[in-house]
């Protein structure tokens, strides 16, 4: 693993901590558990996100250089699923009742949210420059 420019962590009582790292060259690595080995997940990425809950497990998200946001949920070895295009940033939160809640900032400043990977996006504002979850 080369030096990371961003590292994110999420944890829950069943799965423990999941770490996601992004390199300067756009490679994404992740691992669940401190002693676990790093796994290369994908490349061509500009932004990462991670959340976890005891029912769903870890959900990892990434924004690719072409603006497509992709996510995988339940395990680091799950397939990537495309969730939206024209994304600048993606954030994820998760709870055992609803699973992952995603929010994205579009390249034109719009912000939308949805419950679950297969949910429907709901536009909540425009003119934003940044997004975050607690």
Please characterize this protein's 3D structure.
- The structure is a single chain.
- With 134 residues, this protein is mainly beta.
- It has no helices and twelve strands.
- It has strands at residues 4-12, 16-23, 28-32, 39-42, 45-53, 57-64, 69-73, 81-84, 87-95, 99-106, 111-115, 122-125.
- The chain has a four-stranded antiparallel sheet with strand order 1-2-3-4, with no helix packed on it.
- The mean pLDDT is 95.
What's the number of extended β-strand segments?
Answer: 12
The amount of helix comes to: under 10%
Mean pLDDT: 95
Query: Low-confidence segments, ≥5 residues, pLDDT <50?
Result: none
Molecular shape: globular
- Largest sheet strand order: 1-2-3-4
C-alpha-based Rg, rounded = 14 Å
Largest sheet: 4 strands, antiparallel
Question: What is the N-to-C order of secondary-structure elements (H for helix, E for strand)?
Answer: EEEEEEEEEEEE
């Amino acid at each position: 693993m080369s030096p990371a420019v961003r590292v994110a962590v999420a944890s829950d009582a069943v799965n423990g901590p999941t770490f996601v790292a992004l390199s300067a060259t756009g490679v994404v690595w992740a691992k669940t558990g401190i002693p676990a080995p790093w796994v290369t997940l994908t490349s061509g990425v500009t932004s990462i996100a991670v959340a976890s809950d005891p029912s769903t497990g870890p959900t990892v998200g990434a924004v690719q250089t072409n603006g497509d946001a992709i996510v995988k949920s339940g395990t680091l070895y799950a397939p990537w699923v495309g969730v939206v295009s024209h994304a600048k940033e993606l954030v994820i939160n998760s709870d055992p009742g609803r699973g992952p809640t995603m929010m994205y900032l579009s390249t034109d400043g719009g912000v939308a949210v949805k419950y679950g990977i297969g949910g429907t996006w709901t536009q909540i504002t425009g003119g934003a420059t940044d997004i975050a979850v607690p």
